[in-house]
UniProtKB/TrEMBL annotation, chain B:
Protein name: Immediate early response 3-interacting protein 1
Species whose genome carries this gene: Fundulus heteroclitus
Keywords: Membrane, Protein transport, Signal, Transmembrane, Transmembrane helix, Transport
Chief localisation class: membrane
Protein task: Regulator of endoplasmic reticulum secretion that acts as a key determinant of brain size. Required for secretion of extracellular matrix proteins. Required for correct brain development by depositing sufficient extracellular matrix proteins for tissue integrity and the proliferation of neural progenitors. Acts as a regulator of the unfolded protein response (UPR).
Source species, domain of life: Eukaryota
Transmembrane stretches, start-end: 63-81
GO cellular component: COPII-coated ER to Golgi transport vesicle; endoplasmic reticulum membrane; Golgi membrane
């Protein structure tokens, strides 16, 4: 871990606490792309488009007898250009509503990162440094820094939770396919409400933080890992195992949230452990505590009806 | 426990309606939550009460017209489909 980068990252965080663009350039900072380029057509984001435009023309070569007629050739070329134009227009308009380029940052993970992060989520007591590394004011992609939030684990955790819930209901002969949809929408509604409540409380306490909404979504989604561990243990070994593993995971996610949010919400002095007096810091401390304490409550609330 | 996305929308509409019916002079000023009572000090720390008052006032200003539309749509749909 680069000490100077973390130190300058701290100062930059204090200077610019407002939202910073996660992806100001096309592919992230130069020299460290978000995703490894595996397209055969060459580096860059144009590789995908080039592949697709080469596609229809390459299809013309094997079926040459079919396309010897110039009219159909012309029609095919015109059709492919129309399709690519339409695709560009859809991409441009979609990017206005859903920030796809910002979302790409959160999915730039690799296996090593996921393994380490799952380990930290279940056992956060040995992890020492919790700061996020920055690179010229842009936070480093999750594959390079294990402390950066990502959306891959929450998404996969959510889907796995729904499947495990269906499995648990099936072992109790209470399963029907509509119940999967009901479980999914319930969990989604609770997630959205939790993120909205956290956003509202952050607004009320006027915390000058650089946590974005997607960051909060990622942090709220990390509890699904603990829930899955608890439910699977309960299915395999019975109710006692469910309670024990849920207790362990609740404590782990409580410590994880406190250590992560402490650096983002509290002022620098308080985050380093010194006791800073003042009503504002106390309020922020209470806010961090309550966000962290809400996670175990949700974990229990969303799983207790699955283990009878 | 069986929450759907529809209940979320219903909750949002009901909460916004509840904030929108708080009248400025008849009610909020009487309990000390008027628009002029929120701005305390001009430091960099507005305080929780000032933020809440700001939020209430901005929700009332912004959501007045959309709420009329959404409420009318809700009434029509509920009368037609129960």
């Amino acid at each position: 871990m680069d000490y100077t980068a973390a130190q300058s990252g701290f100062r930059q965080r204090k200077l610019q606490p407002n939202m910073r663009l996660r992806n100001s350039s096309v592919d992230g900072p130069d020299g460290s792309q978000l995703f490894d380029d595996t397209s055969a057509a060459g580096p860059g984001a144009q590789g995908v488009y080039r592949n697709q435009q080469a596609g229809p023309q390459a299809a013309g070569l094997p079926g040459q007898s079919f396309l010897s007629d110039p009219m159909s050739n012309l029609a095919m070329v015109y059709g492919s250009s129309l399709a690519s134009q339409g695709r560009e227009m859809v991409d441009k308009n979609l990017d206005r509503f859903i920030p796809i380029s910002k979302l790409k940052y959160y999915f730039a993970v690799d296996t090593v990162y996921v393994g380490k992060k799952l380990g930290i989520l279940v056992f956060p007591y040995m992890h020492e440094s919790w700061e996020v590394c920055y690179q010229q004011d842009i936070p480093v992609a999750p594959r390079f820094d294990v402390n950066a939030p990502d959306l891959y684990i929450p998404t996969m955790g959510f889907i796995t939770y729904i499947l495990v819930a269906g499995l648990a209901l099936g072992t109790q002969d209470r399963f029907s396919p509509e119940l999967l949809g009901v479980q999914a929408s319930s969990a989604l509604v609770w997630l959205i409400m939790e993120v909205l409540v956290v956003l509202l409380s952050l607004y009320l306490v006027t915390v000058n933080t650089d946590l974005t909404t997607i960051d909060l979504l990622a942090f709220s989604g990390y509890k699904y890992v603990g829930m899955i561990v608890g439910v699977v243990a309960g299915l395999l070994f019975g109710k006692t195992a469910y309670y024990l593993s849920l207790l362990w995971c609740c404590a782990a996610i409580f410590v994880f949230m406190i250590r992560t949010l402490r650096l983002k919400l509290l002022s620098e002095a308080a985050a380093e452990g010194k006791l800073v007096r003042g009503a504002r810091n106390q309020l922020r401390m209470y806010l961090t505590m309550s966000i962290a304490a809400a996670q175990p409550i949700f974990m229990y609330w969303l799983t207790y009806h699955l283990i009878r | 426990m069986a929450f759907t996305l529809y209940t979320l929308i219903q909750t949002a509409i009901l909460c916004t309606n509840a904030i929108a019916v708080l009248h400025e002079e008849r009610f909020l000023s009487k309990i000390g939550w008027g628009a002029d009572q929120g701005v305390g000090g001009f430091g960099d720390d507005p305080g929780v009460k000032a933020q809440i008052l700001n939020l209430v006032r901005s929700v009332r200003t912004v959501m007045r017209v959309p709420l009329i539309i959404v409420n009318s749509a809700c009434i029509v749909l509920l009368m037609l489909f129960g």
